[in-house]
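Batch manifest, entry 17 of 40.
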Amino acid sequence: MSRENPVNAGGSRLSAAYNRPIRIAVIDTDSGFVTVLARRAEAAGWHLNHSAGPVPPRDLVAMKLNALLIDPAVLGDEAWPYLERVASMLPDLGLVVCTGRSTVAQRVRGLRLGADDWMTKPCHPEEAIARLEAVSRRRHRGRHEHEASPLAAGELEIRPDRFQAFVGDEALDLTRREFELLYLLAEERGQVLERERIYQQVWGYAMAHGDRSVDVFIRKLRKKLEGLSPRWTYIHTHFGIGYRFEPEPAGIVEEELRPAEPETPTESEAQPELAPRTAHGSFTAK
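Output type: structure tokens
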């Protein structure tokens, strides 16, 4: 039995989705890393452009890239302005930072400027390929969402063309990832989606054991939904499995969850028992 190369496997699936080879650019001076990365990209059928210095954004546009891998250390003091300029001028470009040791503040700044992912060297070139594939896939899906029609659900209007959801004229003020999560759930309305599937489709790669990112983002999303649409419940939890999107008036949900009122006891049933029932305080009101 032949064993399929995992890089080839991932690349072929993504190439089929695009109907053209994946095009990436690398801005890095680490010749050993770039050489191995180029071999992996070639094996996957990708096109790779390499530069040891900054590439003008207009040239990146001309390359028709799917993703850019960049080491900011190569750019020195111009790193932050360059990242911001590329992210703003090429919103459809997947942007992955791959550099040496960095602080939390630096990583947060880079991600807020528009980077999709941040890797720390030394790293395996195959992981870099996988992350480039992941951001390319997410961007590709985002372009299709941009062309999709709005979705109406309860009081919500979900607008893929604006990566936003509205209640009347008010926006939920969603981040890109929050929108992708909401849109995925809404597209599969009524279906229970497992956490692993949600993570794979929104984050772009397999979920690590113990990762709670999906639950954290669901909480953020629910808070924003409740803030503008408190009369509706949209996202339902299936414990141990995942989540389901189904707009329901909040009153109905509360009624379903409220315990049934006990029947009025008969005179004989109302007599005290010999053994008191207060031995277990599980249901004692606090």
